[in-house]
Design a protein that fits this description.
The structure holds 2 protein chains of 2 kinds.
Chain A: E1 12-18, E2 27-33, H1 37-45, E3 52-55, E4 71-74, E5 81-85, E6 90-94, H2 99-106, E7 111-112, H3 124-129, H4 137-140, E8 149-153, E9 159-163, H5 167-172, E10 181-188, E11 190-191, E12 196-204, H6 207-217, E13 223-228, E14 240-247, H7 258-261, H8 286-299, E15 303-310, H9 311-315, E16 333-341, H10 345-358, E17 365-370, E18 384-392, H11 398-411, E19 415-416, H12 429-432, H13 436-446, H14 455-460
Parallel strand pairs in A: 2-4, 3-4
Antiparallel strand pairs in A: 1-2, 5-6, 6-10, 7-11, 8-9, 8-10, 12-14, 12-15, 13-14, 13-17, 16-18, 16-19, 17-18
Chain B: E1 10-14, H1 19-31, E2 35-40, H2 44-54, E3 59-64, H3 73-82, E4 88-91, H4 99-104, H5 106-134, E5 137-142, H6 155-174, E6 180-187, H7 207-220, E7 224-227, H8 231-239, H9 243-246
Parallel strand pairs in B: 1-2, 1-4, 2-3, 4-5, 5-6, 6-7
Helix pairs in contact in B: 1-7, 3-5, 5-6
Classes of the chains: A alpha+beta, B alpha/beta.
Chain lengths: 462, 251
């Protein structure tokens, strides 16, 4: 029931039912869309007894940007790019700016965002709040490492400049929005000569082959990721297509080609029609996904190097299908991403075998190798292996199965990703995030009344 | 909070000694439920039920609640909701009555109606308002297949469940879009203490089967759940039978 009776001066407020990208567990909140910092301060001050939480473009899979019965600050109205230092390679922008917009603005100037996840539809604020990682984590770390400073609106209504390396910064990076609302951020950028990628593709016959290949050559490429066929069984368990790339230098573009004439051009993205709103729940069955996986695997070259690919095709292939999350049907899906450290390869093998044996119809399953851990108190990455897979919620017995996997992950000293979680058992959290007590202490001091609250924080007791 | 599978972390049972409700609570405790409020008339049975759930690892509180005293519902339930979010309310109180006796004693018949219907209207509305303020939660209402078509042998009970069922459906529509999910559960003949001594109907089920169906319904965010599922078809067929024919059926 919409309640849009606010006076002209107040930010736009609607009552809406919200979910994360996985479309599970909807809850209802007052969504307030501030257009100025002053409106943002007022929104935080007046958010009421059930608190508030910032939300960007809603790409977190679970309930991190929902707040049942309270306020949700839609930050996409604050989306100005304030200043670009073209010589030094930094940008100062509002937290509501999307990575897509930044790429469009920065690429023609020869700069690229330092870290991008599998979609460009995320805001800078969300990228810091979830301390997102990309295919370059093994060399570049997570997003917040490239943020020298940010401005944070805290529970008392004050705005603070927070520099990298301070306790408040480390609680905010990966802090899931629970330390405050990020208003602006400065980003250090990556210089590029072209808007093209040089991509190597190879096939791995099984999981061990894949892990050996990732270990041997990851450091030679800036970006690296493997797609795994989790429906393959027996000797082929864990077979994969490994894709690695680097920004193409200018001379990689052929003389006289169109690409060479406009090396930093940003092509308007081709978009397929959006996935329909109502998809039958059984569309992603073992049979259809198995067929897709077989084709996908066979289609990939056994080994191919130096292929030129557009940035968007390399980083964000799924962005070409708007609302692709709908294909999982009405019930939605969960993304299960965890990390286990080096030396815990046996745990990884066991879990991959279990998932393969269970025949989860997951056509999006990837494996990456993380580099050094990030300083954020609740940042996800630790050096090791991180698989991520999408599974439809309706799979029988899935809740119990994932609980069992959680226990294996926790026992191996690993953790699940909070920006993707929608179902973790709360009592496993402290084991997975050893700096949780630190985070809670800082939060209790900074926000004793718990103004910043989300469904995620209520569910897990963050 | 509920999780991606709709599983609640906190549960309020109205009718805390109901076998179906306790089977559901046991099942949910195995999954995510950690806090349970059992509301019912204070009795050794209620305490025993609480102990049974505590033994399974949940933190259990008992609450003195009387379906026949609607004036008290606001206060009693208000206190529970003031303690923290309730992710799921299971409205499970109800009495079967004794049809033959109740037909002769209208006051006893009214007691069935007041418990099953009037009490549920008040407790349901109080819970719904609290859940709406939370912006989330499930209200699961135990109706009955009897609500769909009364039989000669149980029409007093059936009429009370029909009232409850209609009320819950309407409430579900009223709460659509508020984050609150109302689910009407229509079991067939359930083998439990309520039906001890009665002749078992076809497609009889158990409290455990109802609990399983409730968990599945939560995951699917269903609005209506039949237990067993085949009852949906059977009842649809029976509902469309002419009364002259239905009257002669041996049901």
């Amino acid at each position: 029931m919409p309640a849009d009776a606010a006076p002209d001066t107040a930010p736009r407020t609607i009552t809406a039912s919200l979910t994360g990208w996985g479309r599970t567990a909807p809850t209802t909140a007052r969504v307030i869309r501030p257009r100025t910092y002053r409106e943002a301060v007022a929104a935080v001050r007046d958010c009421g007894a059930r608190g508030g939480i910032a939300r960007g473009l809603g790409r977190a899979y679970g309930d991190a940007a929902q707040n049942a019965g309270g306020a949700v600050f839609d930050m996409t109205g604050l989306d100005r790019v304030h200043a670009i230092d073209v010589a030094g390679g930094t940008v100062l922008c509002d937290a509501g700016v999307s990575l897509r917009r930044l790429m469009e603005v920065l690429l023609p100037l020869g700069w690229f965002v330092p870290v991008t996840p599998g979609t460009r539809h995320v805001t800078v604020g969300g990228a810091i709040g979830a301390d997102i990682h990309g295919k370059n984590h093994h060399v570049a770390g997570a997003f917040a490492r490239h943020v020298p400073s940010l401005e944070l609106l805290t529970a008392d209504g004050g705005i603070h400049t927070v520099g990298q390396g301070t306790p408040l910064f480390d609680a905010t990076a990966g802090g899931m929005g629970l330390t405050g609302v990020i208003l602006t951020a400065t980003l250090r950028l990556r210089p590029v000569e072209t808007s093209w990628m040089l991509v190597d593709t190879e096939r791995a016959d099984d999981l061990d082959d894949l892990m050996a290949r990732l270990t041997a050559a990851d450091h030679r490429h800036r970006y690296s990721v493997a797609w795994i066929d989790l429906l393959a069984r027996g000797a082929a368990t864990g077979r994969a297509v490994l894709t690695r790339g680097d920004h193409a230098p200018l001379d990689a573009l052929g003389e006289g080609t169109r690409a060479r004439r406009d090396p930093l051009g940003v092509r308007p993205t081709t978009r397929l029609p959006p996935a329909p709103d109502l998809v039958p729940d059984g569309l992603l069955s073992r049979r259809t996904v198995g067929l897709f996986n077989e084709l996908w695997f066979r289609r990939a070259p056994r080994a191919r190097t130096g292929r030129l690919q557009r940035l968007s095709a390399f980083f964000h292939p799924l962005d070409g299908v708007p609302h692709w999350n709908r294909i999982y049907g009405r019930g939605g899906f969960v993304q299960y991403q965890f990390v286990v450290g080096h030396g815990q390869e046996e745990t990884l093998r066991r879990i991959v075998r279990r998932v393969a044996a269970r025949r989860c119809p997951s056509f999006l399953a990837v494996l990456k190798r993380f580099g050094d851990a990030d300083p954020g108190r609740l940042s996800f990455p630790v050096p090791g292996w991180t698989p991520a897979l999408d599974i439809p919620v309706g799979l029988p017995g899935l809740a119990a199965f994932l609980d069992e996997l959680d226990e294996e992950v926790a026992a191996a000293g690993g953790r699940v990703h909070l920006a993707k979680d929608s179902r973790l058992r709360p009592d496993l959290l402290a084991a997975m995030y050893p700096r949780l007590a630190d985070f809670r202490a800082l939060r209790a001091e900074l926000d004793p009344r718990g103004v910043f609250t989300s469904d995620l924080s209520r569910r897990l007791g963050l | 909070m509920k999780d991606a599978f709709g599983l609640p972390q906190s549960l309020l049972v109205l009718g805390g000694t109901s076998e179906i409700a306790l089977a559901a609570a046991r099942r949910l405790i195995v999954r995510r439920t950690r806090a349970v409020w059992l509301a019912g008339r204070p009795s050794p049975a209620l305490e025993e039920a609480a102990d049974g759930l505590r033994a399974r690892g949940a933190e259990v509180h008992t609450v003195a609640f009387d379906a026949l005293d609607p004036e008290s519902h606001e206060t009693v339930l208000g206190k529970v909701f003031a303690e923290g979010d309730i992710d799921m309310v299971l409205l499970a109180f109800g009495i079967l009555g004794n049809q033959a006796h109740d037909e002769r004693e209208p006051v006893s018949a009214v007691r069935v109606a007041r418990t099953n219907y009037t009490g549920a209207v008040s407790a349901g509305l109080v819970s719904a308002r609290a859940l709406q303020a939370q912006g989330h939660g499930s209200l699961v209402v135990l109706s009955s297949v009897a609500a769909e078509r009364p039989r000669r042998a149980n029409f007093i009970y059936a009429s009370s469940k029909a009232g409850l069922d209609t009320f819950a459906q309407g409430l579900g529509d009223a709460l659509h879009g508020t984050g609150v999910h109302v689910m009407v559960v229509r079991p067939g003949f359930v083998r439990s203490k309520m039906t001890t001594g009665l002749e078992q109907a076809p497609l009889a089920t158990t409290p455990e089967a109802v609990a399983t169906a409730i968990e599945l319904g939560l995951r699917r965010r269903s609005e209506t759940v039949w237990v067993p599922g085949t009852l949906r078809l059977v009842t649809t067929a029976l509902r469309h039978l002419p009364r002259a024919v239905f009257r002669r059926l041996p049901v």
